[in-house]
């Protein structure tokens, strides 16, 4: 069997929790269209169906058997495609942590350095207690505020300089910058963990001056 590629399409769109994907728009085997023109199967899906069709063609009663098999495979692959694109299915599984410090460090880097706000729903309590006066209490208020900040400052990052833990509290000394040209701020964030969720937050923030009275830096 010979496959002729009749249309390439690179889909560079990013889905939450899913990276960029390469997909081929359509394929033909002679006059038989393997996929509807509006269907955008993955490379693996294309090859799976093509190989299955080649096997079926060698069997008696190919036409009826092929129709049933192709319908079943398309149904299965549509579910796989939906799972790969939908945030409900696509979000990466939260890893298992050995202690509170490891958990909060993962959370911090996902939110503030990778800008993956989906972990807020998974890792914070609905009644999240906030001591920063710029935020209201609650997980949703926290998520809305962080998403707004990241949209306004898409190049922002918060590099962890020191991290420590004491019981259910985790302390992060970090360097916040809005972009590469920003001197930024020195901050200490404190999180309280309970029953596997982040339930409370405090922070103190100080601007980094252009000149300092010592050479020790703020980190």
Describe the protein's topology.
Layout: E1 4-11, E2 21-29, E3 32-33, H1 43-57, H2 62-85, H3 87-90, H4 100-113, H5 118-123, E4 124-130, H6 139-152, E5 157-166, E6 169-177, E7 185-194, E8 197-207
Parallel strand pairs: 4-8
Antiparallel strand pairs: 1-2, 2-3, 5-6, 6-7, 7-8
Helix pairs in contact: 1-2
Overall description:
This protein is an alpha+beta fold and 219 residues long. The chain is built from 6 helices and 8 strands. It folds into 2 domains: 4-89, no CATH class; 100-207, Nuclear Transport Factor 2, Chain: A. It has a 5-stranded mixed beta sheet with strand order 4-8-7-6-5. A 3-stranded antiparallel beta sheet has the order 1-2-3, with helices on one face. The chain is extended and about 90 Å long.
Notable features of this structure?
alpha+beta; 6 helices; 2 domains; 219 residues; three-stranded antiparallel sheet; Nuclear Transport Factor 2, Chain: A; 8 strands; single chain
Q: How would you summarize what this structure contains?
A:
The protein has 219 residues and is an alpha+beta fold. The chain is 35% helix and 30% strand.
Q: How much helicity do the residues have? A: 25-40%
| Count of extended strands | 8
Shape: extended
**Mean pLDDT level:** 76
Order of helices and strands: EEEHHHHHEHEEEE
Widest β-sheet, arrangement of strands: 4-8-7-6-5
Class computed from helices, strands and strand pairing: alpha+beta
Largest sheet entry:
5 strands, mixed
Spans of at least 5 consecutive residues whose pLDDT stays below 50 are 1-41, 78-90
